[in-house]
Amino acid sequence: MRIVILVVCFWFTTSPLYAKIVLSSHRDDAGYEIFTMDTDGGEPIQITNNRHDSFSPTWSPDGRQIAFNRDSHIYVIDADGENLRQLTRHKNNEQDLHPDWSPDGTLIAFDRFTGGAPNRRANIYTMDPVTRFVQRVTDFDFNAQAPKWSPDGQWILFQGQGNPLVRSVRTGRTSGLSPNTTPVSRSGWAVGHRRGSGLSIWNGARARDGTAF
Length: 213
Prior knowledge:
By secondary structure, the protein is mostly beta strands. The protein has one helix at about 1-10; strands spanning about 10-15, 20-25, 30-40, 40-45, 55-60, 65-70, 75-80, 85, 95-100, 110-115, 120-125, 135, 145-150, 155-160, 165-170, 175, 190-195, 200.
C-alpha cells in the first residue's frame, strides 16, 4: 500500500549529473517533505524536516541544489540537506509555486498568484537565485502556471487556459501548441496534451543531454 501511495502523490525529477531522483512525499502521517533516492532503488533520504509542506522540487543543473515551494514561497536547499534559504518574499495574498531551474542555472522560473477575488491570477516570473531579483515574464488575464524551460534555455513552456503555451525568452512572444504536438526543440523537449481533459503534461525531467525523461 505504501508503494501505491508514493506513486500517486510524489512529484519527482532526476538530477542532471548524479542519477538521483528528488521527490516530495507524504510519509508516516507527517507533512510533505523533500527526499532524494538513487534511480536504481534504495531507501529515500529525507532532505527537509519542517512542519510545513514542501512541494515541486527541481534540481539545479549541476545537481548540487534543489529548489522547491513551501508556504507559498520558493526555497533552495543544498542536495545534502544543508543551507536552506528562502528566495522569494511577497505580500500575504500572493503565492509562488512550481519552480524550474534554467539550463544554465542563472534563473528560476515559477508562477505567482497575485490579486484578490474575482481578479486573482497567476503569471510566470523568473528570479536570479543569487541576487534574488524577480522579473515578471507574462501579464495575462488568465492563469499562466507550471513553467518549464526548454533544454536550450530559449523558451519557457507553461499551462494557460488548460492548454500548453510557449514563450520565447528572446522576443517575449507567446504562442500556442496544438494537442498531441511533436517535440518543439531538436534536443527532444517533448510536450503532451491530453485532448479534452484540460491537462497539459510536460513535467518529465530533463536528462543531462536535454532530452525528456
